[in-house]
Design a protein that fits this description.
Elements lengths: L1 H40 L6 H15 L2 H6 L15 H36 L2 E2 L5 E2 L6 H26 L16
Antiparallel strand pairs: 1-2
Helix pairs in contact: 1-2, 1-5, 2-5, 4-5
């Protein structure tokens, strides 16, 4: 069951990462088109600011969170744990992951509540063009939920490693760097 959950959450994280990557490429092309039109033709694409800040940026920030956690790519400061044993580190990481996934569950709950509210109201931004914005409200709770699930599953693996002394807690081996 744990392996299946890990596979499903990893698939979700990778899918959301791809969507985030597509969003950043589309955002780049959209902004380039906007700048080109303004510079050469003194024209613009109506709603660019609203789409960039209301959709693209939200997708780029929140959707890849699960993938970053899946790859354990968040910043970790190991100042106080450098000399700790592998089991001790696994216990500490497990506890941190449980605390963080609990906080993420609260954020996700609040985000889903707000997304439902704004969906019901049909939220939109008034600008040169009215832009329906409520669909973007779903990006935060989706991204945070996937990150929280992955973090919780990683906590289980950390506790298994701490108890059994076996596991994949040890970081990936760092390749030797070239001498300068």
């Amino acid at each position: 069951m744990l392996e299946t959950s890990e596979k499903i959450s990893a698939w979700c994280a990778r899918t959301l990462m791809v969507i985030g990557c597509v969003a950043i490429i589309v955002m780049m092309l959209h902004v380039m088109a906007e700048v080109t039109l303004r510079y050469f033709f003194n024209a613009s694409i109506p709603g660019t600011e609203e789409l960039v800040s209301g959709y693209y940026m939200v997708m780029v920030v929140f959707l890849p969170l699960g993938y970053v956690q899946l790859e354990r790519g968040h910043v970790i400061i190991e100042l106080f744990t450098l000399k700790a044993s592998t089991r001790t580190k696994a216990w500490m990481d497990g506890v941190v992951y449980v605390v963080c996934s609990s906080a993420l569950a609260i954020y996700a709950y609040a985000g889903f509540h707000k997304a439902i509210e704004m969906t019901q109201k049909g939220e939109f931004w008034i600008g040169l063009v009215d832009v329906t914005i409520w669909p973007a409200r779903w990006m935060m709770p989706i991204g945070v939920t996937v990150m929280g699930v992955i973090m919780f599953l990683q906590a289980i693996r950390e506790f298994q490693a701490a108890i059994t002394g076996k596991g994949h807690h040890d970081p990936k081996p760092v390749e030797e760097s070239e001498s300068v």
